[in-house]
Amino acid sequence: xxxxxxxxxxxxxxxxxxxxxxxxxxxxxxxxxxxxxxxxxxxxxxxxxxxxxxxxxxxxxxxxxxxxxxxxxxxxxxxxxxxxxxxxxxxxxxxxxxxxxxxxxxxxxxxxxxxxxxxxxxxxxxxxxxx
Length: 131
Prior knowledge:
By secondary structure, the protein is mainly α. The chain has one domain (about 5-120). The chain contains 4 helices and no strands. It has helices at about 5-25, 30-40, 45-70, 75-105. Helix 3 packs antiparallel against helix 4. It is globular, with a radius of gyration of 16 Å. Mean pLDDT is about 85; it is low at about 120-130.
């Protein structure tokens, strides 16, 4: 089967689909699609990174849950802003991890952000927020 996406995108979408399946049991077809796309690849070299990617998506899912479920009016604007910054920081870690996996899998495609806040080392979590 010829993949539709570069391997780093397949792995990322697979991690999201696996998380969705574990949380909702509502997307077996999507998960199967990505599993089939990945079946020709040996992912043992990125096994740890894939687990970390799943955890990053899990953190983002948790941060977005109230906002996606229609309960955003129960969350203060300050909390929404805090979550937005935290989500941005998790996405920066996600991009870095995807590019690490691309290098290990000898994929030429990299995710690159230019003039984007997620690229700034100046934007850090406040010390009271855990990674």
